[in-house]
Amino acid sequence: MTAATQKLFTDALVWDAHAGVFPSPQVDLNLLDHWQQQGASYLSINVGFDVMDWQDTLATLAAYRNWILARPERFVLVGDTTDIDHARAEGKFALSFDIEGMNALDGNLDMVGVYHALGVRQMLFAYNLNNAAAGGCHDDDRGLSEFGRAVVHEMNRVGMIVDCSHAGHRTTLDIMQESDMPVVFSHSNPTAVWDHQRNIHDDQIRACADTDGVIGLNGMGIFLGDNDISIDTMLRHLHHVSDLVGARHIGFGFDYSPALDIDIGAILATRPDFWPAGQQYETRGIKHAGPELLPPLIDAMAASGFGDDDIRGFLGENFRRVAAQAWHA
Ligand SMILES: [Zn+2]
């Protein structure tokens, strides 16, 4: 890195909109050190997804929450963006939770407020397959249900980021029409650069920008290209979104897990319903870029013409802008 980009990175708010750790009360959260060592200021940790029973999501949330709250010298469980500012000023890592899919509600709208009270600040509607609220990206998407519409309004009301990643095309357009707040795709890449059902089309990117939302670019090799996590490829995704809707609608949700001793492909192969054949999930040795990609990526972004304000926006200020609205502060 040049001295100038090093300073920019050190001083910047660095926001990772989604971790890819498989949620379980047994996970050792000391792995969070990895993000902090790579310069992250804030991370949204997933505590559940539709593959799990809702009771297991609640148990994971309880375990993670207690672990974090027992270490106030290292972490801040954030309620709003002012808590992130305080955490940074004190050199602590700011955290909140997300849930991937509305099975976690068990059909009960009141659970949105319960999850919010426990630290969940971002929820996705479906995890690849349809559920009672929404359609998934690997399913025959029938759009947002009446229950799903009620969930959008309840999330807007209690103060949660509405997240369209993993949902089906039609469902995402319904969500973005329904929400009174900016909407995000926390970890999704453009289909125009790499054709994958988990990636998103230009009309979805435009609709997201129309809400003043943000697309978080995903670091997983099978969503970026042919298991390709090179800087050039990441930059191609970034440029596509920027050319389409502008730099203020881009961030990062690396979907990263530092548990590199696990073979993601082997885990995904156990549930071909959620991770269907023909979508590269069977790839052995799936590569995965995390926040360690940021220093060379910042140099590459600067070299390709983005200014300091654009880069600060990508690194965190764009997601912060959305969060300040969605979280009501
Ligand atoms: Zn995900």
Overview of this protein structure:
Strand 4, helix 5 and strand 5 form a beta-alpha-beta unit. This protein has 13 helices and nine strands. The protein starts with a helix and ends with a helix. The protein has a single domain, classed as TIM Barrel. It is globular, with a radius of gyration of 18 Å. The protein has helices at 3-11, 32-37, 54-69, 81-89, 111-117, 146-158, 169-178, 202-210, 221-224, 231-245, 264-268, 294-303, 308-326; strands spanning 15-16, 42-49, 75-77, 93-100, 120-124, 161-163, 183-185, 214-217, 250-252. It is an alpha/beta fold and 329 residues long. Helix content is 40%, strand content 12%. Strands 1, 2, 3, 4, 5, 6, 7, 8 and 9 form a nine-stranded parallel β-sheet that branches. It binds zinc ion. Zinc ion is lined by residues 100, 166, 187, 255.
In brief, what are we looking at here?
The protein has 13 helices and 9 strands. By secondary structure, it is of the alpha/beta class.
